Amino acid sequence: MSDTSDELDPLVAAAEAAMLRSLVDPGHAMHAGRVVLAAARRTGSPDAAAIALRAMALAARELGDLEGAEWHLRQAIATPGASRERVAQARLSLVTVRTERGHPVQALRVAALAWTYLSPLDRAKLDTQRAVALAHLGRPQEAVAACDRALRALAAAPGTLDNRRFLAGGLLNRGLVHSYRGDWDAAMRDLTACLQISQHAGLRHLARLSAANLPFLAVRRGDIAEAFHHYREAEDTLFGYPERLATMRADFAGALLAAHLPGEARAMLNLAVPDLEACGARAALAEARLKLAQVELLTGDPHRAREVAEQAAGELAAQDRTSWLPLAREVVLRSRLALEPVTPALVAELIAGADELEDGGAHLAGAAALRLVAAEAALAVDDHPTASTQLARLTRHAEVPEPAELAEPGERWAPAGARLTSLASEPQARQLARASQIPIPVRQHALALEAALQEDVPGAFLAVRYGLAEVSEQVETFADPSLRAHVAIAGERLAAFGLALAVRAGGSCDVFEWAERWRAVTAPAHACALVDPERVRAELGPRALVEFVVDGDSLLAVMIAGERVLLRWLGTVRAVEEAIVRLRYAVRRRSEARYAVLRRSEARDRAPGPPRDGGKDLEVVAGDLEQLVFRPLAAELGDAPLVVVPVGALHTLPWGALPFLRGRPVSVAASAASWVRAREGARGDGPPAVVAAAGPALTHAHAEVAHVLACHPGGREVPGRTGAVLDALAVADVLHLAAHGVFHARSPLVSGITLEDGSLMAYDLLNVTRSPELVVLSACNSGMSRTPVEGAPLGLPGTFLAKGSSCVIAGMVPVQDEAARAVMSMFHELIAAGQPPDTALAHASAKTGVYEFTCFGAGDRPLYQPVATGLEGSATQLDQEPT
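^ thats the sequence. predicted structure below, dont judge the formating
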């Protein structure tokens, strides 16, 4: 017996050493655990076997095998002869695994079973694990309290590796709970302390987990560019740990969703959800599915949104996470509203869903937004009493400001917040507290609806103006990101309601004003002081401005030309969308046909005829679209240069392909106000500083760059790498990039230009302090843009313009390498001769027949003093195009 006893202590020590290695080197810990387990079973050491199984479980968890982790822990708990303390420690580890596998209630029961047989210090460690389950159950205050107790005990304990592991883990867990509660400073303190302890103790994996939360926190603190920087680092750090990487992506997506970036959130969730499924991380999976459902709804796919939300609801219900179910139900209801005819039964379900969100007070902003939707749905079925009842619940205790309280457009608004009547009794005070959490634009939208129902149009406009003023002042002051997102979304809907009121009234100047207000809310990156038509006229000179507006299923245009401000109905939105799709296809076919002819010419191929010619198709399709968009405006526009402000699918239109616009200078702007602002930027005296770079895998990119630089004395080429290009932004007046472009329709901020060391993404530009006056993106699709709310353009052109560029030239469809070189060579020749960018592009496109590029921003200012040249008659290789 003495020999056997002598062998037991080394085995226990070896098992504990393997357990401590699980966070440092999980692969090695798994191997060591197996060796110790075999020896323990061979020598009859149940405690060593239980510890070895626990070590293997912890290693499996870090490697993303949650099912394997639970199996090992249950084997440890069931080890015959193991002491109660060792069994309780295995249960301690099982708490987190059961939570991650989607059973937080059972996890708390496991914790209760373990508590009795644990030492005071192990109870502190158990509290750090209980906090995870409590947070998943929507009990953040209890979770923080559990972490507080645990951290006090662990901070006073001896500094063993295991104690420091749990101390760092407790800080990590508490930091995450703080972040979900909106206490960013506390969250950052805890995560920073976790990182420091982990690094000092050599707990590299815990350090990686702490750093992996930096993308999430950066978004919540409003630094989107830094968030993506941290995300790229975390991706590399967590490679090989699929469950951890997927959880990080899902958390990051939640922060992006709260920041009102649903497209970028969707990209993260499409990566995270399959990995969470494969790893069996059911708790994180259910939350990720719910986020994905919300994203699918916001990005325009209600079918998919409903399907995913119902699946998430089933998983959440199975996990007893009832506090999450109203959120899933909300997505289902909103999806049904988009897919089904409105009925009284659906109205009743919307009201019930709003009541469910309101119960408990955790989702008051969402409840208010859904109640407003229910009121609008009731109006759609002529149920005015129900609509009035729901509106009254939103407007209770609110006062509408007097007209004198509102300043003129462009000035600071007087009200600092929605004024609520004072209440004395405690029940009334609780009502007031709830009323104060209704997003101001939701309340004002309800007041506007009430006024409109009473045919009080001035009162409706007043309520909308007041709500938008509050949005512009307060949206960034809310600490809670979910509330901030609700305010932003509600502000967009409120602005759209004001625009609809203006369209109904029929005044062209009113529609222009409200179209500008709507754009200022939907695209805050481009927002600036509103401008009246007189200011726009003064800036336009001989030009004309056409601002497109959507009203229900109809497309309208407000035109400012000379002394006139006109409003015209153009056609149905669907017809225009379909025509744009056909036109983009025709432009692409024509480019491919031209490319095939050139290739055969270079090879001296005498085979008969080119492939099917896309030129005639292009003329027919372009003519059809032109009839829809410009026929009602043609007489008034004449041959004036244009500024166009697109909406919806018009953001994807290659404008130069329309016969009505060929050879005509056209600038595409986010709004009239942003176009005026872009014209105000003054450039220094002397010739512009020109910088150019070529990307990889393009045959003629370097030749194109060489020709560009030959047009501009003193111009210089920089390496086609992201760092060099970003550095050039600080010094260049003109930046020319000849490279491949990638556009992501559902996540514009991850659109980019392909360079030698990766991609220059739109989000890389968010923190730059200066942007060149003229940016030329000689790349496929680099000018494409889309926003979920169809506001001003995002993607690369919109990002450059928002950062201070006056003009961006970018491709709207795939463009062949030779075609890009031809049109860009002539464009820069004309720029150097003193032509403004919009005129230079119009002439170069007409001469070469390359219509793939568009001028964004204010392209009417030359960069050089005009000189007399004979360039107007110059030709390029593509002059003899096959048409």
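The chain has a mean pLDDT of 82.
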